[in-house]
Amino acid sequence: MLKPSHFLIACCCLLLSACSQNTEPKLTLHVFECGNIEVKDISIFSPGVDEGKTKFLTNSCYLIQHEKGTMIWDTGLPDALEGKGGEAFGGKLLLTVTNPLSKQLGEINVNPQQVDFIGISHFHGDHTGNANLFENASLFIQQAEYDAAFGEDPTKFGFNPPSYAQLDKSKIKVLDGDHDVFGDGSVVIKAAPGHTPGHQVLFLNLDETGPVVLSGDLYHFTKNREHKRVPSFNFDKEQTLAAMDVIEQFVDAEGAQFWIQHDKEQNQTIKHSPEFYQ
User: Fold this and answer.
1) Which of 171, 151, 170 shows the shortest CA–CA distance to 161?
2) What pLDDT does 5 receive?
3) Which end of the chain has the smaller Cβ count within 10 Å, N or C?
4) What secondary structure does DSSP assign to 198-267, as a single string?
5) Structure pTM?
6) Model pLDDT, residue 24
7) What would the mean pLDDT of 20-27 be, rounded to a whole number?
8) pLDDT tens across 49-79, in order?
9) What is the spatial distance between Cα 37 and Cα 264, in angstroms, rounded to a whole number?
10) Distance CA 218, CA 190 (A)
11) What is the pLDDT of residues 122-137, one digit of tens each?
């Protein structure tokens, strides 16, 4: 017969063994291809450089699954463009969708109605295209972006209000700078204004992959990052350059990978859903 002390020791050993066998990752990241952009004149992204040259960009969306909840980061071009495409920027941008976000979420058994949080790097239409799928989620948005997106004339900032009209305004979480989403440092929204009034990027600290920063539109492709070029249509050039400096210093300090959400060539080196990072 076991003595009480021996019994307690045995119970503790069983608990420790059960914990050690629990390999469920605390944080996972799925990457989705959320549309394609053919740019007829790439110099709109880098004034005075490569005028008249065509470049192909991709559009990326991300699903973050944490033990405390799920979050979608950016929602891409609208699924409704599948099979017909569209134009933007006076015909300089040709937009297509070949793999709808709703379909990709379904393939990994994620119901958009059950996603807890939505983070949008900024409110241009290629990032809010499917925002209405997540009408039950709590939106994270910087104060300056909120004022622009929900103010008197969002269109003057290049925003498309119908694309996010179904978000629950009572659940909006207006931010003033950086925000630790789950309170443990693993998912942090970082303010990076300039492309739009309240542009932001996302930091992830994954157990196996390590630290990753998702760019939003701080840059659109690697060449612009290398030369710190600011698109002609950015809201504020000086704010953009300052944000670039702040985020680059952060990336260096964290030793983070920097994923440029529109960079087609870099994106081809990143695994996509149903595969995932952890």
Assistant:
1) 151
2) 47
3) N
4) T-EEEEEEETTTEEEEE-TTS-SSHHHHHHT---TT-S-HHHHHHHHHHHHHHHHHHT-EEE-TT-HHHH
5) 0.91
6) 65
7) 63
8) 999 999 999 999 999 999 999 999 999 999 9
9) 10
10) 12
11) 999 999 999 999 999 9
The percentage of residues in the chain with a pLDDT greater than 70, rounded to a whole number, is 91
Strands in 257-259's sheet, in edge-to-edge order, are 179-180, 187-191, 200-206, 210-214, 257-259
Options 3.30.1240.10, 3.20.10.10, 3.40.1280.10, 3.60.15.10; CATH for 25-267 is 3.60.15.10
The per-residue pLDDT for range 139-160, each reduced to its tens digit, is 999 999 999 999 999 999 999 9
Closest CA to 233 of 42, 26, 1: 42
